[in-house]
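FIELD: query
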Amino acid sequence: MSLTVLEIEHLKPRAKIYRVAGSEGLCLEIAPTGSKLWRLRYTFNGKPQMMSLGKFPKVSLEQARKKRDETKALVEAGKHPARERKAEKLRRMVEGQNTFEKIARHMLELRAGRLNAKYHTQCLSRLEALVFPMIGALPITEITIPDVARVVEKIGERGTIETAKRMKQLISQTFRYAAQRGQCQFNPAADMRDLLPAAEQKHHSCIHPRELPQLLLDMRECKNATFLTRAAMQLLALTFVRTGELIGAQWTEIDFDRAEWNIPAERMKMGRPHVVPLSRQALNILKELHAQTGTKEHIFHAQRGSLKHISNGAVLVALRRMGYHGRMTGHGFRALASTILNEQGYKPDVIERQLAHESDDKIRSAYNRAEYLLERKKMMQDYADYLDSVLVDAEKKVVKGNFSKSGEARK
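FIELD: result
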């Protein structure tokens, strides 16, 4: 018997459930409530089976017949229809959890403890702004090379080539992470070397070593900077740390007895703890700072606003006011120290370790934060003494050359 839509619509409920047969095992089950459910009778491995195909009218007569034919095809292929349907449902559920966005977020969450907090936040915010809107909702198994290329090229079109390259790298890391967990088998971001033009190399501004004497004089005489900012510049010159690592320093990190500054991994760019040997000059500055902010958590405690410590731009603003705009930055103190110490013959490995640059031997570097510590202690004290001698010589030249219009030396 072949049902028609009109016949189905006129079927009335009874006191008990009853079924009306259709064609080729298809039937309609009518409940006392009036609901109508499609069911299919079939035989699998010689045993009678029955499965539901959905409710009428949500599943129309035409759709029910199509599902019937699909089910019969599975049976003829030797597949159990009910099990196949459960497997398909599970695949759809997995795909819902297998989107690029969910996998990328999970990867970053697991890596959070190993990454610098600022870098972790930056990666996530960039993914949210630049990548997720384009491919975040797609199952990772469905993302193709052109999909990734469009994302990377769109970022690059804005002129941010370096950001585009970083995002390409992060996308590739996400696919590798998924592949290691069996969530995909192909990395469409693996080889895109020619996709973006080469970015112009940018270096942090840094004066020539011959300008160091004048810089030290200007730092000492700087009237437009606060005591904290002047101390920050002096410590940058004496410790070679990054500006962010310095301004976020806490008193609990300073060991006055051992003359060491222990920076925890979460505050370091490379995500590894770092020991900074403190020269006598650096210790003297820290003791002066302790008199002002020793009761606070941060050494460079912000006096105003909601910040816990002075801003990252405080040093840069001071240098600009001193006349070094475009010529010197906080990071420049690192480059300056590296240049001078290399010229003076110190071991490159010792200098690089003090700068907390990533070692080629990552395993050794990860476990030996005090690498070359004795040599670094001597080097840091030698460099501090060298800066003092440069400043003394600069002062002598200023006194000898500072004459009035009448030709008499100023007192």
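FIELD: remark
Confidence is low (pLDDT under 50) at residues 362-367, 401-411.
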